[in-house]
Design goal:
Blueprint lengths: L4 H13 L13 E6 L11 H19 L3 E3 L3 E2 L4 H10 L3 H18 L10 E2 L3 H16 L3 E11 L4 E3 L4 E2 L2 E2 L7 E10 L5 H8 L6 H11 L2 E11 L10 E6 L10 E4 L1 H9 L6 H14 L11 E9 L6 E7 L10 E4 L5 H9 L8 E2 L16 E2 L10 H11 L3 E5 L5 E2 L1 E2 L9 E3 L1 H5 L11 E3 L29 H4 E3 L6 E4 L3 E2 L1 H4 L3 H4 L12 H7 L4 E5 L6 H14 L12 E4 L2 E3 L2 E2 L10 H8 L1 H10 L7 E2 L5 H14 L13 H19 L3 H16 L6 H11 L4 H10 L22 H4 L3 E8 L2 E9 L4 H10 L13 E5 L3 E5 L1
Parallel strand pairs: 1-2, 1-26, 3-4, 12-14, 26-27, 28-30, 31-34
Antiparallel strand pairs: 5-6, 5-9, 7-8, 9-19, 10-11, 10-13, 10-18, 12-15, 13-14, 16-17, 20-25, 21-22, 21-24, 23-24, 28-29, 31-32, 33-34
Helix pairs in contact: 6-7, 8-9, 18-19, 19-20, 20-22, 21-22, 21-23, 22-23, 23-24
The chain binds one RNA strand of 85 nucleotides through α7, β11, β15, α10 and β30.
Length: 818
RNA sequence: GCCCGGGUGGCGGAAUGGUAUACGCGAAGGACUUAAAAUCCUUUGCCCACAAGGCUUGAGGGUUCGAGUCCCUCCCCGGGCACCA
């Protein structure tokens, strides 16, 4: 029979009353911060995949609690942001109103999954008491020079009508709505995450995270060790030769003598046009066209195009004059926006040179001879056609040639600064004010940002005004710009009328620091309490989705490092231990609203009871692996729980009834195995062991209640209600020492010596094939084992000749090679 | 193209280099029942009439007394990055 709501409510009440899940954050001795990525509350409610993750995290937390830790397992809602807002637009309900409805539904569902949440500390990112501090962080970023404004080509989602960070563009598409992203020239706020590139890399060495995530972050940061070489420019109209120059970045300075041209990005071309260096009509036209083309598509098309700029560079290696081309295959956002073209040893350069009939000169050779190259050779070799460097190994030549050419080492990163502005309504307004008067006078809070002031901290939060029309209009300005009342503000410096920044900040800023706020969510005077932080942070266990590898998981590390630098905290990696959860599919497809295959947990919890659902989700696969949701599987765990109930009717009346040695061994082995499995988040095998144990206990004529007690404790993290129910029933036994709740532990201990076997089955193999499994006493010697085997009637036939070789693995296996 | 995961019965999955297929689902047969559901018992990788035996972890090689596990080559699925110089 499915678990009743009454039973569930009964225990929820007891737990609340006794604050089983509410550790005293200031006082506890053995803190354990058990954190899950908080949900982005969509209107359709909690997703079965989130339920699996959350209950999985909870299984782990309950286990830790029973082991004697004061577990803090908070929950909240990441409710600000484009997702919620887009949905609000779709159904025509104001996001602020929608949030309240969604919130209620979400908390109801989160309450129903049986987790040991610390409800007193829940928070929502759209609560002004929360985003006040999100804004405070922005202000600190500005004050420390880590927030800046810059006009540049940025990612623009035409459907969401806002800019996006690079991390939010997935193969040219908007992370949220999958529309093709285009480039737009806009002035935006950025956070200087690139200042932390090296430390973000270094920190990865110190944290226990899945390799998958670490590799993704390393690739995203994209550290590349190379060299910078300067090419003087000649042929600029009206300018002296060699007065100006261009820097290029390369990882292959050994190919310097093979340079036959230089290619620069259209953006750099535009700069040079503005400087008056490029005057060629054709080149100017090309730059205009290619920049325009890019505004239609985020990625430049595969087809390489280009035009000669009219000016030349001097190769500092051999003093040769090479033409400078402008081409779409050169990225403006990486390196210097200019590359040296070495067609013989770079595939892309080869393609370009072939297309535009530029010369190709081989300078690296595998055998020291010249070849008629049909394709680029990018490998190592011996230098040829390279003047005094001929004969040098290419690897060794890198340093020497760079030095000779007057260049130097340079490290480049792929990582770009975090674009945090959003031209949307449903987010924390960026707490900045622009004063035109100050700007005109060249004044500002920071030298490099004239006219800009951060909002006085005492005036935070800058409240998001209620607006009837909150629709993004695609003008490149937030809907907030339409509210005159909101925009008008006094300049913090000169007190004249100034205007507020009207963009809101990225949702990922909201979630970059929530784990601090959980620890003290109601404090109005500061973002967090240093004493409590010291006690609880960094987080002991963090679990969440792999899709955040280079989003949330990168930003959150960056913000922690900034806090560390500002001496707010004493650690710089917020999550020393992180584990990913697998993805749950339905009929093999990702669950999504558009596919209409979202599984709502409510019906299942209603029908089977929350314990059966929790156990089914845990039994599917290890937490880190995903799986396909099929309701058929729930019957297994439902039956299991019914049998647990039935077993309670079979308890021995007295406590004296002992257990067989075999049963005792199974019990102790189960304690060990289940503990280890839960520690490794392998709940599936923990449940399997519980099933094995239950099968054995059922076969007893009557079950000693002590054995049942242990069983219930082992079950407790997985099925919190069932275990509590039958645990509490044990109080009718006189000698039972009842804890307030089974969930307060202690976790049972096993004795290693009780697990030790007296006899075992020795696997007998002949030429690697198993022929028998014979009972033998533990610790038997090879000689004694052989004796028994040779006497065995069934095995005699194999030993017509004596074995050439014998491999003996004590207490396990013997293999005869005949 | 590059970088990560992964490929084991009808299905989900289990296996420190040492009995592959634990545990569960499903299926088949039986018991109980007027009947069904529920429950309980038995069987359940493949070949073979049984036994004996043989075969089997995507494919093919290799190392080893012994390989799902280690190495090489390749195929397929999932994910990430992608003109990064």
């Amino acid at each position: 029979m499915a678990q009743s709501k009454t039973l569930q409510n009964k225990w929820i009440k007891l737990w609340r009353k006794n604050k089983v899940y509410e550790p005293d954050l200031k006082k506890v001795k053995n803190p354990f911060y058990n954190l899950m990525m908080f949900p982005y509350p969509s209107a359709e409610g909690l997703h079965i995949g989130s339920v699996r993750t959350f209950t999985g995290v909870d299984i782990y937390g309950r286990f830790k609690r029973m082991q004697g830790h004061d577990v803090f397992e908070p929950i909240g809602l990441d409710g600000f942001g484009i997702n919620s807002e887009n949905y609000a637009l779709k159904i025509g309900k104001h996001p602020a109103k929608l949030a309240k409805i969604t919130e209620k539904n979400f908390y109801r569902q989160l309450d129903a999954i049986g987790n040991g949440f610390a409800w007193n500390e829940c928070l929502e990112t759209y609560d002004a008491e929360y985003y006040k501090w999100t804004q405070w962080i922005f202000v600190q970023m500005f004050k420390k020079g880590l927030a800046y404004r810059k006009k540049s080509p940025v990612n623009w989602c035409p459907s969401c009508k806002t800019v996006l960070a690079d991390e939010q563009v997935l193969s040219g598409e908007c992370e949220r709505c999958n529309s093709a992203v285009i480039k737009k020239d806009l002035e935006q706020w950025f956070f200087k995450i690139t200042d932390y590139a090296e430390r973000l890399l270094e920190g990865l060495e110190r944290i226990d995270w899945p390799d998958q995530i670490k590799i993704a972050q390393r690739n995203w940061i994209g550290r590349s060790e190379g060299y910078s070489i300067t090419f003087p420019l000649v042929g600029i109209p009206g300018e002296e030769n060699r007065k100006h120059s261009v820097d290029i970045f390369t990882t292959r300075p050994d190919t310097l003598f093979g340079v036959t041209y230089i290619a620069i990005s259209p953006e750099l071309g535009l700069e040079w046009i503005d400087k008056g260096w490029i005057k060629k009509e054709e080149a100017i036209k090309y730059v205009d066209n290619s920049i325009l083309a890019r505004s239609r598509k985020e990625k430049s098309s595969e087809e390489k195009t280009g035009v000669f700029s009219g000016i030349y560079g001097i190769n500092p290696g051999n003093q040769e004059k090479v033409p400078i081309w402008i081409s779409n295959y050169v990225l403006s956002s990486y390196g210097t926006g200019a590359v040296m073209g070495v067609p013989a040893h770079d595939e892309r350069d080869f393609e370009f040179a072939t297309k535009f009939d530029l010369s190709i000169r081989e300078v690296i050779s595998r055998d020291g001879r010249d070849h008629d190259l049909r394709q680029a050779y990018a490998g190592e070799g011996v230098l040829i056609n390279s003047g005094k460097f001929n004969g040098t190994n290419s690897e060794n030549a890198k340093e020497e040639i760079t030095k000779f050419a007057g260049g130097g080492k340079k490290i480049n990163y792929r990582l770009r600064d975090w674009l945090v502005s959003r031209q949307r309504y449903w987010g924390p307004p960026i707490p900045m004010i622009f004063c035109k008067a100050c700007g005109d006078a060249g004044r500002g809070e920071r030298k490099d940002m004239s006219g800009w002031y951060s909002v006085n901290e005492k005036e935070l939060p800058v409240k998001l005004p209620f607006m009837e029309n909150y629709k993004p209009d695609g003008t490149g300005e937030s809907p907030l710009a339409k509210s005159k009342k909101f925009v008008r503000a006094r300049c913090p410096k000169c007190k004249s009328w100034a205007s507020r920044e009207t963009d809101v900040s990225d949702t990922f800023l909201d979630s970059s620091w929530y784990y601090f706020r959980y620890l003290d969510p109601k404090d109005k005077t500061r973002p967090f309490d240093r004493q409590i932080i010291k006690k609880w942070l960094p987080v002991n266990m963090y679990i969440g989705g792999a899709e955040h590898a280079v989003l949330h998981l990168l930003y959150v590390r960056f913000i922690a490092k900034a806090f560390y630098d500002w001496k707010l905290i004493g650690f710089d990696e917020p999550f020393p231990k992180f584990r990913i959860n697998g993805l749950i599919t339905k009929d093999g497809a990702k669950m999504s609203k558009s596919r209409g295959n979202i599984v709502n947990p409510d019906d299942y919890i209603e029908k089977f009871g929350v314990d059966a659902v929790r156990m089914y989700l845990a039994f599917m696969a290890p937490l880190g692996e995903g799986g396909d949701f099929r309701d058929a599987g729930i019957s297994g765990t439902t039956r299991f729980l019914a049998r647990v109930e039935k077993l309670s009717e079979k308890l021995a009346k007295t406590s004296k009834e002992g257990l067989s040695e075999k049963m005792e061994r199974l019990l102790h082995f189960s304690i060990k195995k289940i503990g280890e499995d839960i520690e490794n988040l392998h709940f599936n095998t923990a449940i399997s062991q519980l099933m094995i144990l239950l099968n054995s206990l059922e076969s007893l004529p009557s079950v000693p209640w002590q054995a049942y007690e242990i069983f219930l404790k082992l079950l407790a993290p997985l099925a919190p209600f069932t275990s509590e129910e039958y645990y509490q029933q044990l109080k009718k036994h006189k000698s039972f020492r009842k804890e307030l709740s089974v969930h307060l532990g202690p976790w049972p201990k096993y004795e290693a010596k009780k697990i030790a076997l007296e006899s075992f089955k020795l696997i007998v193999q002949i030429n690697g094939k198993t022929r028998a499994a014979l009972d033998m006493p533990v610790g038997i010697t090879e000689k004694d084992a052989e004796k028994r085997i040779f006497e065995d009637e069934n095995l005699k036939k194999y030993f017509s000749t004596s074995p050439k070789k014998t491999i003996f693995v004590p207490d396990r296996l013997i293999n005869f090679v005949i």
